[in-house]
Amino acid sequence: MYVAKEHLVHRLAKMAGLRRCTVDVDDAGTVMSVWAPKDKLPAADDAAEATKKEAKRDAGRLSVVLIHGFAGDGIFTWVLQVGALANHYDVYVPDLLFFGGSTSGDARRTPAFQAECVAAALRRLGVERCAAVGFSYGGFVAFRMAEAHPGLVAAVVCTGSLPSMPRSTNEAMLRRLGAASFAELLLPDDVAGLRSLFAAGAYGKWSRWFPDFVLKDYLELMIFNRKERAELLEGIVVSDKDAAAAPSFQQDILLLWGENDSMFTMELANKLKEQLGEKASLRSISKAGHLVMLERPRVFSRCLREFLQQQQQPRTTAAASEVKLELLNETTTI
After folding, report:
1. 66, 53, 4, 72: which is closest to 213 by C-alpha?
2. Of residues 320 and 89, which shows the higher confidence score?
């Protein structure tokens, strides 16, 4: 698994023009690991400086921030999307705190603090405006970024997540999944638990074909910082009263869902679209579960690009795309 990640996943990211860097975001030892466009990183020599000057010609390109969930770190989650997006957008893939190479000495474990750290890292990398794409736990973070930093976040794409996790919804999900807690489900300590996690997240039965040694390697490589991650899971749950006071988002929002998601179901997706109002559109992808970006990567990337293209259009062309926008604002299934 380590060899696959280093030599395949990282190679694909580098082929898409991304490089990994670390960003200090505060004085408490908080460090964010981020895969970023190589031509947007600080120049180390004259040749790199020339590359950066060349990149300024593309200064109008939209930045896209891909925020992962609990199943893996940033680039492992989004490797099948970076190649599809990097030719048209500046793609940034952060590791959230206590995943990948990101860490912090701060005691806060909320999506809001994760959002502040991602926003700080992006600004230090020169990002002024972006679309935030959040999967599962990353969706909570993307919504918090959009709420706290409307000047930074121009649009939100949410897949398999919510703006907040009401306690009643949390308890209903656990009953449906047959788990005592999300820590039990999302932080497995053996191969059987990891198989159960993949089975819950996938539509197909592909996870059952992984040999035990691959899953053991995955546990060692991906499931660490267990105490801190368990605290992150506790930090997403809020009272039903607090969840009802949801913010009114300024951004256009795409809810991009796996039609067969057994964790965050289509019922939750439809309720969320109704709650968010006319600024939100919902698209569902058939034959895909919670891990929709891995199960149907080409369809997922196409839906994502179509939405992002609309966000990049000048306001003066909005009238020309009015019909297309109206169609997207309806619930569609692919």
Report:
1. 4
2. 89
